[in-house]
Amino acid sequence: MRLTGTIGSQDLPLKENMKEQIMVKSSVIPTSIIETANGKLEGHITEGVHTFKGIPYGRAPIGIRRWRRATPPDSWTGTRTALTFCDRAPQIDRVRRSANAWIRDPGPKSENCLCLNIYTADVKGKQPVMVYLHGGGFRYGSGAAAGLDGTRLSKNGKVVVVTLNHRLNIFGFANFSDFGGHEFSDTTNLGMLDIVDALTWIRDNIRAFGGDPNNVTIFGQSGGGCKVAALMAMSSAKGLFHKAIIQSSSAHMRLATLEDTDRVTHNVIRQLKVTDMKMLQELPWKTVFDGYLKAVAENFDNDCFRPSVDGIVIAHNPFESESLDLSRDIPLMIGTAETEKSFYDIILPPDQLSLTEQQLHDKVAAFVGVTDARGLISKYRQGRKEETLRDIFNRITSDQMYRRNCIEAAERKSASNGKKVWLYEFTFRIPALGGILKSPHTMCLPFVFGTTDIAKNFVGAGAGQSQLTKIVQGAWSSFAHTGDPNHSGMPSWPPYQVNTRPTMLFDNPCTVVENPKADDRTTIMACPPFITDRMNRVP
Could you give the residue range(s) of every CATH 3.40.50.1820 domain in the chain? Predict the structure, then answer.
């Protein structure tokens, strides 16, 4: 529930009428009063965990503040109740099915989205801090999705969990450096700078919530994993976090270029028929967003709006030598799920899931960027006679889109003589859609957050899920505590080395395998590197 009212000068989440607000307030167990730099906060307690929602870390980027670096939030008088999530950033509404509803935030949208949520089991402690960056490919997403509730991860892992929202798509990653002039030169990475501002707020305030500002782990899945990698390449983020986890990220090795974002940005300007930044800033956000959607449609549904190597905010791609030097002291955990790409089958009608031999070839060739994919397909089909053509398609595209980048990142990090890196793969098979998805994209999240009950239509429920949750949460929280994911409930997991390639396979049981699926790895690494633009043009 998100409704707005005002205390002092600050827009706050309230109920439509005071009577209802009082009833809501009386139905929850209040936290102790927390003093922040901006004022006092009171949240609620669930399962013994203190929860604070919708805390602003920046002023709403509206009007003349649109496409500008966020400014610190206004202070307030009295005690602010932090009981409801804030709005999610303007975005498209993704298809909701029972299997993936747990990862969607159905709440309202607005530009007043610069806020964070805190879950802490011990407000008097000095716990490691885990800051989660949501996925959604920089187009959509929210830190308030039900499956991202940090209550159990905080309680079981003895950590402070933070989730947050920031600017997305045209509002967070467009390139107005030419159209708007020098003062708008950083617009292509405003969404990343929002995260830096959130991390700065956390550094300055998290002690009051029982967190240790000198022990912060950033972690994210999919687009969130790319955000983690981008932060590792940003000098402005140095010192604001101390460990990193990249989960199932497809584009973290190669960010966008200014040329990529400039092309679509100018299409948006043309659609909106504006002549200067002032006119653009004064338009209602929904008008801007409609123009953005039309421009994207003209560009093969590829918006190109994601973190960019702009030479200002981000100087180099993640895992290039210069970026590795910048993040030398950051231990890393990185990995994928085995059949990431099958996740997108959730929204397809059943009659579109089957493929002919010709369709398999054409789709693989287009996705990988080759003319003849027969040899590639033949190698992946060896020893997999029981798998359908759709299964083979998902294996190849998953390896091309996700696994190869994670392996390459682990190789580069391992060879950099910095802090250690650990590589993993989820091979646990989930029951959604009769088991046809196998081990898809996003499946790691319910196990990390301990929300398999909320996502049971996706990952299932039972003793196997409970055991895997315990192991996964233990690995993530152990890494946050010490920079090493090993704990007593799992097999010994050595850091990654190119000569042995040890990989943790999260399954029932969990095992560590040296150089798993070696033939698949060498086959896909011989293909052209993954390019996001090409992926978005594949039907």
Answer: 4-214+244-321, 334-536
